[in-house]
Every structure is written in C-alpha cells, then in structure tokens.
C-alpha cells in the first residue's frame, strides 16, 4: 500500500494449509532452516499513515437472557481513521 510507513518489516510466522485440512506452522528458526527470507524493506512511501485508528463507539446489549435457549445478540462498533481509513473492527 502507498500508505505503508518506510522501514524494515519481519515475517514472524508462516502457515500452510492443504485442501484436506492438514496444516503446518513455521516460526523463526524453522523459517531459517528452509532458507526463507524473513524480512523486507519499504522505501519511497509518499503517504505513510503511522497514526492508529480510533474506536469511536461500542454498543452491547445490557442483558442477554438464556433461560429459553441460545440468543442472537447485536454488537455495534464505530471507528475512524484520518489516514488510510478503517479496514475493520474486531
């Protein structure tokens, strides 16, 4: 993204999944053992966004009554970001 701040970024882990549901995780030394490059440098950013987004609101239900079984609840969140914009709230 053109909004990425210049600097060196490091990959700390890689995860591989196959269509049968098998998976393998690779961390630090395991990545080095297979000769994987684990960092890269970003240069030339024109619009670097280094300011974090802000949570502007969070609405939860006051009470969830489970006496008659499972219930669906609504949670609403708001956020703003003056730079590149909000991607998502989790």
Protein architecture, described:
A two-stranded antiparallel sheet has the order 1-4. A two-stranded antiparallel ribbon has the order 2-3. The chain has a two-stranded antiparallel ribbon with strand order 5-6. With 90 residues, it is mainly beta. Strand 2 and strand 3 (23-27) form a beta hairpin. The model has no long low-confidence stretch (mean pLDDT 94). It contains one helix and six strands; from the N terminus they run βββαβββ.
What is this entry, summarized?
It is built from one helix and six strands, in the order βββαβββ.
Side-by-side strand order of the widest sheet: 1-4
State the helical fraction. under 10%
Largest sheet: 2 strands, antiparallel
Strand tally, please? 6
Number of distinct helices: 1
Oligomer: single chain
Gyration radius from CA atoms, angstroms: 21 Å
Outline:
flat
- Uncertain stretches: none
> Class by helix and strand content?
mainly beta
Report the mean per-residue pLDDT as an integer: 94
Per-chain topology:
Layout: E1 7-10, E2 13-17, E3 23-27, H1 28-33, E4 39-42, E5 54-59, E6 76-80
Antiparallel strand pairs: 1-4, 2-3, 5-6
Features:
6 strands; two-stranded antiparallel sheet
